[in-house]
Structure formats: C-alpha cells, structure tokens
Amino acid sequence: MPYVLPGGPPKPKEGALAPPPRPPGADEILGECRASIAAAKAKYDEVIAGTAGTARTVANTLEPFNEVAMNVANAANAAQLYREVHPDAKVRDAATACEKEVTTFSSELLLDRRAYDALKAVDVSKADALTQRFAQVTLRDYKRAGVDLDDKKRARIKVIEDEVTDLGQKFQKNIASDTRFIEVTDPKRLDGLPPDWIAAHKPDAKGAIKITTDYPDYIPFIAYANDDELRKQLYIKFRSRGDAANEGLMKQLLALRLEKAKLVGFKDWAEYQSDDKMLRGAANAAQFIERITTLAQTRAKKDLAELQAAMKAYGGRLQNVQPTAPGTIGDWQKSWLERQVKKEKYAVDANVVRQYFEYNAVLAGLLEITSSIYDLEYRPAWDRRTWHPDVRVYDVHRKGSGDPLGRIFLDMHPREDKYKHAAQFGIKEGVAGKQRPEGALVCNFPNPRTASGPALMEHGDVVTMFHEFGHLMHHILAGQQAWVRQSGVATEQDFVEAPSQMFEEWGWSYETLSRFAKHHQTGEVIPKDLVAKMRRAEKFGLGLQTLQQMFYAALSLEFHRVDPAKLDQIATVKRLQAKYTPFPYVEGTKFHASFGHLVGYSSMYYTYMWSLVIAKDLLTAFEGPGLLATATTHKYRDAILAAGGTKPAADLVRDFLGRPSDFRAFEKYLTTD
Ligand SMILES: [Zn+2]
Predict the structure, then answer these.
(1) CA 445 to ligand 1 centroid distance, Å
(2) Please, where in the chain does CATH 1.20.1050.40 lie?
(3) Which band of pLDDT confidence, cut at 50, 70 and 90, is reported for residue 11?
(4) pLDDT of residue 2
(5) Which residues contact 269 (CB under 8 A, 6 or more apart)?
(6) Sheet strands (E) in 129-274
(7) How far, in Å, from the CA of 470 to the mean position of ligand 1?
(8) Distance 469 CA to ligand 1 centre (A)
(9) Do the bridges between strand 392-398 and strand 376-380 make them parallel or antiparallel, or are there none, so unpaired?
(10) Rounded CA separation 617/610 (Å)
(11) Ligand 1: centre distance to CA 127 (Å)
C-alpha cells in the first residue's frame, strides 16, 4: 500500500482549521530571544546566590544552572535559525543582533569564577551517575575556558577570544569576496561544457566571456572544459583566493590560539582542541591520519592508474595541453579525467535516476522508514506558527503514545534570502520535565508546489535528506534527558556526524530504496542493477579522494602544532601535498589562504574521516539482519541515538556493537568495490 504522506498535501481546506497564523515579526523574535536571555540571567543569579546559610546542593545550584544552559540555548538556537531562514530582512537583522547578545552573555558566563566555585562546591558523591557526569563535564568546560586563572589571565583570554572571532570572520570574508576570473574571447575554447552552461555565459560588449572562481562557474568548468590551458589558469586563480591578506591573518590567529592553549595548560592548540574529543591528543590524530593514508594506498594507486589510462585514451580530446612532470597528472586535470572515466566506464544517466525520486514520495518513504525502524508516528501540527508557508510541522510520537517526544520543522525548498546548503538546526534542546526537543531541517530540494512538472530529486539530494534527517532523529530521540548537556546531539564533536553518515546507507541500499524509489509515471520500482551501478560509480576515485582528505587533515593539524612564528605556510602546503597526494603542487597557488575550515575546524579537519570510520563500523550490526530489522534498529535507537551525551561516545558504540569500535569495516569499504 502506498504510504500517505502524513499531513502532506493536500493541506486541510480553508476554514476546516483556523488559518495558519502569520509568521512572527522582528519585534516578537527579538522579544522572545531577549526573554530567553533574561530568564537565563535570572536563573544565573539563583546559582550565584545559592540558599543562604545552607550548603551547595544539586537542587539549589546544579538544577538552576541547567536552566541557565537551556535558556541560553533557546536564545542562541532561535537566533541562528531565524538569521538563516526568515524571509523578512528585519527579522534576520533582529536575530543577528540577539545572537551577539547571547554570545556575549555566554562567554562572560564561562569566565565567571563565582559560578565555577558554586558548581565545584556541590557534593555530587551521592548523586546518580548522570548528575555526576553533568557536574564533571560542566566543570571541565569551565576549566577549558580558563575560569580558574587569575584576573589578569582571564582578561587576556577574553581579549584573545574576541580577536580570534574577528580574525576568523575577516579570513572567511576575504575568501568570499575574492572572486577572480578569466576571460575567453574565442567561444570555441568552451568546447566540452554543457550547452546550458554555455548559454548562461554570453560574451559581453567587447566579446569577452567571463568565467569566475565562484562554484557554479568553477566546478563545471574544471570538470568539463576540454581546454587544458584555460582550466589550469582558472585552477590557479581558484586556489589563490584570499592570498592577499589571509596568510597574515592566519599567522595572527594561530599565535592567539597557541597563547590561549598555553594559558589553560596545554602544549599547543591541537592538544587543547582534541582534549574533550573521542580522538584525544594530537599525536593520536597524526597517527590516525597516517593509518588512513596507508589503508588508502592500494585503491589510490588503482585510481591513479585509471586516470593515467584515461589520459592515454581520451587525452586526444584535450586542447592546449599543459606540460606536467614526467609520469604525473596535473591537479587541474584530475576532475576532467574523472569525468571522462565516469562517462565511459561508470556511466549512470542522472536523468534516468531522477525519475525514481519524486520529492513527495522520497519524503514519505523517509518518514515511513524511520517510523517503522524507530517505532514512531509523525502527526501534523498545522496550528503551529512557522516562518514560511512551505514549512511542514510534525509532532513526533512513540507509536500510539499521546505525549509527543518532540516536534520537527521541515523547511525543504529554496527561496530567496534562505540558507543555501542543507543542515539540521536545533530549535529547543529537550530537557525532561521542562521542555520538549524541537529541530528543523533546512534544505534546498525541488518544490512540488512551484515545480512545473513533478519535483524530481537528484540521488545526491536524496542521500543528503537522509543524512540531515539522521541528525534530526538524534536530536529528538536524545532530547529526553534531564541534563541539557546530555540531551540531543550534545556528544563529542568528533562523533556527531557518525550516526548521520551511517544513515546515508538507508538512502543507498536497494532494500530501503525499493520501498519508495518508484518511477513517478509508471510506478516501477528502481531496478536493482541500476542501484548497483550507481554505487559503483559513487565509489570510483575513493582512494584518491581519501588521500586528498588526509592532505587537508594533516595541513589543519600541522598548522596548529608548529610554532606560528616559525611556520612557513606555503612550504608546509607544498611538503604535505607531495607527501599525501600524487598530484604535484602547482606554482602560483596558495591553497591554505582559502581553506575556510582552518577557522571553524581549526586543527580538527580529520574528524570527518574519524566519524566515517565509526559510521562504517556501526553499519556492521545491520549486515546480517538488514537495515529494517527492528531488533537491531531498536537497539541502535536506544544505545546510540536516545543515549545522547549520557556516556562518552566510545562507550555508546561499545554498548551497541558489544565490542570497542575498530577499523575493519572501514578497511573493507575502502578496499572493495
Ligand atoms: Zn551532518
């Protein structure tokens, strides 16, 4: 029986329900956000005051502190969400303003010695394990922030934090605003590019066709253009963005990070940054990078041989071929060669695939599958006010239960001034007895309401939908804990992607796809051999991609382990590129100047791969019984998702697998087709 999208189109007739309330305006958003900050401040005063004449207890100190954290999160979450999705610019500005206020408040909070002393004074020796863990993790966070340093050092940390934020913003802005371009006067030199791309790039009055380093230009150009000289020119421009100022900014940023790490008792930033993560210690991170690099060698060699064979076979299609060192392939040639091999050897017609992924059917399939494997029900909540009429709201229930577990908002389609990527946003962190968890998916998938025909999705978008929904499930199912620091996705930062990376498999496996991936006209289930072909194509180039990732990981780690005064940034890039990848450094490029992850991820770019290793290991539990067997999925739901941050992530994984996590599954994934 086809699964009916719960509450999906058609919406209830006008008059059947009260009309959907109008979206909240700027005054209300700012008012709500400031009310949360005020509530946090009031609870904070309670924490500091304690109960006169009596000892510090869980009830008079830890519990109000929990509510401080809950209210701070409410303010910060709402501000971040509205800043990214609200259609009204006034609301987005109000949200940005409130986000600043809440950031200021929470950074003051973490350096306030009075709160730290109050929390430290609570005797938790007789409290339950979760309360003890909450106290311990909170005190650790305070110490990491530098709260137990003297006044002078704390003041210095405050200055460092502000400067680091400022430098990071400047670094990112320099990348975003540094759009470079090449000009082509001979239209024949666009040979190889898709006709719609060429049609969108008309010559100007002087007859010049401008091709920029922005992604919609750069990505197709580097993959399709047959003109090797132009591709190399654009590649050099692309990999030079930010270089006017960003090396200098990075030098200052690294120095400040090192200073902070030393102030709070660590050897360097990489040690400090990894200290509260699963993969602890910079030496372990370096070892991890080496281990993955070794594992990837065989496949990478095969990939490279395939690219070299492609150069022999299809090199004749190139124009203005650029010289490379003997036996090597230029970094600017890689995408083009990959595209040739994919076309000739792993051909999957995206237009054929798309026919099986109509948006409403995909969403219905995703809801049906999660409802079945996690024993949930999605009930539409049309009365809820949202920021845009396209947003769908559901209350998530355990099957047959009156009380909802939480609420989800699906903002799935593009519109002007909306966030351009795909992400899960927490709205409310669940705190048992205080508030239910709420979360939103913010994506950019085709819109059935505005599409001229059926809203067909790329398979990549289907996988993205499953990935992001994995975060949402984690947020809701884990949002039933009493302590906010253990609720939702409040787990180690290098574990948080693992459940979502694992859940991508439900968007790839024939077992799950066959439940909803049906041809939108004929109803035919997606053919099994088409899925197999899609999977083979997806894995082509995995060895080289893994090495490229390890190059970036090593770069982000090494920048944060070396004395910034002695760090030669460009020499490090050249050395590491040669060490990890078979593609020689191209003169004139300064990749690190536009490596934005150096701001957000700092030393921890390797965490993407680390969580993927765990994701592949988690997946082994489903190998025999399949992805839909409830004995396994319920165990997974309880041991990993619902457990949230109640235990260290390594313990959650061990609880679920019945053994510590290891590399075997990842090794198999990397070495087999
Ligand atoms: Zn994710």
Answers:
(1) 16
(2) 26-169
(3) very low
(4) 34
(5) 254, 257, 258, 260, 261, 560, 561, 602, 603
(6) 181-184, 209-212
(7) 8
(8) 9
(9) antiparallel
(10) 11
(11) 35
Residue 492 to residue 275: CA distance in whole angstroms: 10
Ligand 1 mean position, distance from CA 468 (Å):
6
CA of 547 to the centre of ligand 1 (A): 21
377's enclosing H/E stretch is strand 376-380
Q: Ligand 1: distance of its center to the CA of 467 in Å?
A: 6
d(CA 561, CA 519): 53
| CATH code 1.20.1050.40 for 26-169 | yes
- Centre of ligand 1 to C-alpha 121, Å, is 38
Distance (Å) of CA 434 to CA 57, 209, 481: 20, 59, 10
Find the 501 Cα to ligand 1 centroid distance in Å.
Answer: 7
Q: What is the mean pLDDT of residues 623-649?
A: 97
CA of 598 to the centre of ligand 1 (A): 18
Is the model more confident about 452 or about 239? 239
Q: How far is the CA of 594 from the centre of ligand 1 (A)?
A: 22
335 CA from centroid of ligand 1 (Å): 25
Find tokens 């102030």 and name the residue.
263
Tens digit of each residue's pLDDT (9 = 90 or more) over 427-482: 999 999 999 999 999 999 999 998 889 999 999 999 999 999 999 999 999 999 99
User: Whole-prediction pTM value?
Assistant: 0.92
119: confidence class by pLDDT, cuts 50, 70, 90: very high
Distance 397 CA to ligand 1 centre (A): 24
